[in-house]
Amino acid sequence: MCGIVGVVGNVNATKVLLNGLNRLEYRGYDSAGIYVNSQDGKPCLIKRVGRIKNLEAAVPETLSGTQGIGHTRWATNGEPTVANAHPHVSADGRFYLVHNGVLTNAQALRNEYLADVDFASDTDTEVAVQLVARFVAEGQSVKEALRKVMQLVEGSYAFALADKEDPNTIYVAKNKSPLLIAKGDGFNAVGSDALALLDQTNQFIELHDEELVVLTANSINIESIDGTPRERETYTVDVSEGDGELGAYPFHMLKEIDEQPVVMRRLLSAYAKADGSIDMPSELLDAMKQADRLYFVAAGTSYHASLAAAAIFEKMAQVPVSVNFASEFGYHIPLLSKKPFFIFLTQSGETADIRQVLVQVKKRHLPVLTITNVITSTLAREADYALSLHAGPEIAVASTKAYTAQVATCALLAKALGMHKQVAAAADWNLAHDLSLVATAQQTLVDQKETIHKFAKEMFATTRNAFYIGRGSDYFVSLEAALKLKEISYIQAEGFAAGELKHGTIALIEDGTPVVAVISDPVTADHTRSNATEVEARGGKVLHIVTAALEQKGDELVVPDVNPLLAPLVTIVPGQLLAYYASLDRGYDVDRPRNLAKSVTVE
Ligand code: F6R
Questions:
Q1: Ligand 1 centroid to 301 CA: how many Å?
Q2: Which residues are catalytic?
Q3: What's the pLDDT tens digit per position in 378-420?
Q4: Fewer CB in a 10 Å sphere around the end CB: N or C, the chain?
Q5: How far apart are alpha carbons 284 and 413 in whole angstroms?
Q6: Which CATH superfamily is domain 3-242 in?
Q7: Domain range 448-593, its CATH number among 2.120.10.90, 1.10.10.10, 3.40.50.10490, 2.60.200.20
Q8: Cβ(370) to ligand 1 under 6 A?
Q9: How many contiguous H segments (helices) and E segments (strands) does the chain have?
Q10: Which ligand 1 atom is nearest residue 398's CA?
């Protein structure tokens, strides 16, 4: 989703902005722009629709300056056009603003304060920059004008504001949308994501909601919305888990699929001890032990990972679990158990739907754990407890290694909780051994790319629709594999509980309809096979993905056996690769599918 980068100080602002925007590309966007107060004192605003490279091509090589702001936009209000791209400029040409988030009362503010102003765009953002100019024209300082805007607007915002009459300052404000300050040597910067500025510094300062910051080359002054000064320490962002470089790979998604065995081993070294026990914070385990029900709250792929995780918690920690869509839960909270414990499973740690639930849960003073790949993210910071997925930066929009890291991290936590509660099944579980087998099984599958590419051609070359079917955890994997296929190949794909097909959906099966049957669960394997046969009888083309122990003659793709509770970590790998090759063969940009964003910061 939208990305922000801004810088002031002793640097080449153009270079910092363009590097930063390139590093933010993975979030998904449809236009981009920069404002630089150039060395000759002339402000320079350049915006383009489409890829950053279009913007780069339009930026003169000689353009440099010591103050600038840049933005990648994912359209919410107004189409993806140059006029709607950020930065937006006030009608008097003095103020430039980039914005992430949505201002829900923009039209009302425009009617009330700006009826006489000619707008250049259809965006809510332009209202904010025109308001700053209006309040400054009425005699307020820039800081006071921005503060007044913060007080007036409703909704979410991360703002970076530049005043062309003051090339030594950038003004920053935040509410609900993520934003960090980056502290450099002789410069300071702002970014919606640490990754945007990690090539400049690894020292960051978090911002809280409704804070305003005045940044100069050598000072960072943070204030609350009412003007109270706030002190905050810097923290160091660890880049040791890879910096998301592509290396020799054609796409990040392929690289990230390949990294999954390494991530499994990294998780083992982070959480498993030599004696077979699992190292988790004792306060977290104490709090979870009190719980009579775990409530997973998540979205998309992370929701699918939660489904797989729930089965592991129920068996190994003997605790009931409910799995919920964040976008539904926040506004329709069900009757909760007496001692609920919340788990937010989120790759980015910034998902606005989950943040909304966090606000509700905090109001009720209920305990929350965030499990995320970005341990410095908003949801990690604001939860009572946080655990890292240790997957390293995931750049492709379609999540792969974060999904398997989520299921594996939950398995580690479930075992730790089970042992803390003295559940026999957990004590007997040699999880470190089982996860090593998972890593080896994943490696076997990522080494079979040619075979899986062949299946992708046979199944998905021309089809408009497809099905994945399975039961139990194979159903959860079907949901995730179908989502992967939809996201990047634009084939209409459905993940289905195999037994449910005959209750209506089988009507959609016709000659050649591709159906992938996932079979790893010994209890239901025969039933799923029967459902696949029913599909074949109606002309469907079935690809069986089956674990070795359940293999039958004619099965197309056999995957290594692992503990059935961990099977999703293995059976999903062919699903990821099938989606990758379907997208590649159709000529799409695998890493940046249309309409999608990596970090979904709007509700
Ligand atoms: C799909 C995908 C999304 C995310 C969802 C939640 O590949 O990545 O479905 O899983 O937007 O995002 P996080 O996990 O960041 O909360």
A1: 5
A2: 2, 598
A3: 899 999 999 999 999 898 999 999 999 999 999 999 999 999 9
A4: C
A5: 10
A6: Aminohydrolase, N-terminal nucleophile (Ntn) domain (3.60.20.10)
A7: 3.40.50.10490
A8: no
A9: 19, 25
A10: 7
